[in-house]
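Batch manifest, entry 17 of 40.
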Amino acid sequence: MVSLGALGLGVSLAVAFLGGLGSQTATIAQLAPTPSPTENPIPSKPDVPYVPTPEIVVTEMLKLAGVNRDDVVYDLGSGDGRLVITAIKDYGARRGVGVDINPGLVRLSNENAQKAGVGDRAQFLQQDLFQTDFREASVVTLYLLPQINLKLRPKLLSDLKPGTRLVSHAFTMGDWKPDKTVTVPGNATSSVPRNIYYWVVPANISGDWQGRVEYAPGRSQPYTLRFNQQFQQVKGDAIADGKKYTIPNITLTGDRLTFSRSETIQGQQGTIQFNGRIEGNTLKGTAGIKWGVLTRNFPIVAQRSTTLQGRAQR
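Output type: structure tokens
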């Protein structure tokens, strides 16, 4: 039997490689300070003027988010309710909630939902966006202003589940780079091209993750994974057997983490591929090792060190 150590990647490297994910000091969001409970970040009158989103843009936003019958869609700054209504009627969303501070628009939205036959699945709330509980959302859409997006960003990152999809019409989230950008060309009803931006809320993977992999009966190797994170961008190191290895090709999408590394060892190509999921302070997954004719899969379970956990400022 060829040991992983003989691969040059080694159990220690393979595990360390996995481990490198662990001890990063991640900053999921470097944001404006969160207002204290006594502060009202949005006044009673709207901070955002009502400008209806063109229907073609509504359609592209919902397509970009991949809305389906399992989704609960929240539209922040919902205007006349068109996006929520379209999400339910045309894309089959399980439920939709629109939030607007303008009582006249909330009444109009409820009337429009009844006329469209989706009143039982659409709800419109007259609320301050910063006071809204949208933790159940699987999709959040926005057409606000740049400064409002930035003020709202900490709440979005802290309250929404990893994997929640965000789509913003026209405005970005500052230095939180979008995962996708789509330009909707002008047409007869809206001559100006419109940009829409898409993000997936990332899990907090910051800190050191420690585990042990058994590579032969009675033989195991401890490792540490260390991650540095800014939003969905992650860099990592694996530490094992007193050595540190850089982890390349890291992808974080919601709570899903993957990375891979290829290396020529003794004239043959060796590859490590990790696929896993972050569940709070536990990282679970599988590391697949391939080298020549040798293929091995190792279950990986690592716990985040609470003493070395990176602090995510959301």
